[in-house]
Design brief:
Blueprint: H1 3-29
Length: 45
């Protein structure tokens, strides 16, 4: 395997890994209910 082929495979592998990570994070962020805290900006008394 030539050095050129190794570099191309390394770059493609990194790009594919990045896409998989972003898809995983996007799916994980949209699972479940909203995490909004009610009355967040109101000061405690």
């Amino acid at each position: 395997m030539s050095p050129r082929t190794k570099w191309i495979l390394a770059i493609v592998g990194l790009l594919v890994g990045n896409v998989l990570a972003m898809v995983t994070l996007a799916v994980a962020a949209n699972v479940g209910k909203s995490e909004v805290i009610p009355s967040y900006y109101e000061s405690p008394k």
